Amino acid sequence: MARARTILAVLNLAYNRFLLHDGWAIASHIALSALFSFFPFLILLTALASTFEFGTLADNATEIILDVLPVEIAEPLAAEVRTVLTEWRGDLLTIGAALALWFSSNGIEALRVGLNRAYGVRENRAWYVTRVESIVFVVIIAAVMMAFSLAVVLGPLLWRAATGFFPALTPFSQTVGFLRLGTTTLLIAIALVVTHKFLAAGSRPVSHVLPGVAVTLVLWIVGGLAFGIYLAQFPSAYASTYGGLATAMMSLIFLYTIAVIFIVGGEINGAAIALRKSAKKSRARGE
Predict the structure, then answer these.
(1) N or C: which end of the chain has fewer CB within 10 A?
(2) What stretches pass through the bilayer (predicted)?
(3) How much is the pLDDT for 158?
């Protein structure tokens, strides 16, 4: 019973903090920044893959990113992505790469703003320090995506070789197919933990960020499924309202929903930390 009261207190405080910290407006900022960052990030990913002669790994990474989106959003985006990435760009490793890095890091900076408000902390570092940190985050994400893409490419080849030597493994082939989704989910969970722990100002133990990360993952799955079902039931709703901008608006509204959930996860962690500190002060006063 006491645990239930604690959970309700955390949720109530998180809701109030979400409103106090302008959560709806910050979610809009995150969604718009993410949309602006998406294509520059993919261009940067392609440039890095070409530089290190990784061939089509950038395409595989793009497919992995699109796999986590509802199919109604992923399919139109995939067509635009192919258009952008098939154009030859001679400036990718010079000015173009620098601009792609800068615009990609805008998405990280937007997440930082949301998390700082959620945790009730103030960023005291210079803007160029945080910007460099955001750029480092982008490069790390790109490297992880390429490494994961390499595993996706080599995985089936290694599995076919294994089943050739050990035919008894063949019935498990379908099970192995689910590993891609499971590994993608694990990568997202790790990215969330790292983001909550290191991106926001100050420091906090991993145990203090796990509740919000868990809530974020669950709500992202539920929200993604619900959004996909809605689009499947009303496929022409956005086209009739926004015309040629339907794809962009669907993407923006989906990203806005994802951003709201992300901030809610941060506010839950922030509320739990605030209540924990309040309880410690009460005990110290002997109340």
Answers:
(1) N
(2) 24-49, 92-115, 135-158, 178-200, 212-233, 253-275
(3) 59
> 3-class SS at 50?
helix
Domain ranges for the chain: 2-278
pLDDT of amino acid 54 = 55
pLDDT (tens digit, 9 = 90+) per residue, 2-22? 788 888 999 999 999 999 999
Name the burial class of residue 134, with classes exposed (0-12), middle (13-18) and buried (19+) by CB atoms within 10 angstroms of its CB.
buried
Separation of alpha carbons 212 and 130, rounded Å = 23
C-alpha triplet 43, 247, 224: angle, nearest 5°:
90
Render pLDDT for 138-156 as a digit per residue (tens, 0 to 9): 878 777 766 666 565 555 5
Tokens 């420091």 belong to 203
Closest by CA position to 17, among listed 124, 112, 121, 165: 121
Q: Measuring CA to CA, which residue among 3, 103, 106 is closest to residue 43?
A: 103
Residue with tokens 């910007």: 131
For residue 152 the two structure tokens come to 């996706």
CA 285 to each of CA 2, 248, 280, 282: distance values in angstroms, whole numbers, following the listed order: 22, 55, 9, 5
Amino acid at 75: E
Q: Residue 50 and residue 58: Cα distance in Å, rounded? A: 8
Residues ≥6 apart with Cβ < 8 Å to 238: 231, 246, 249, 250
In this structure, what token pair is assigned to residue 141? 């994400």
Q: What is the CA radius of gyration of the chain?
A: 21
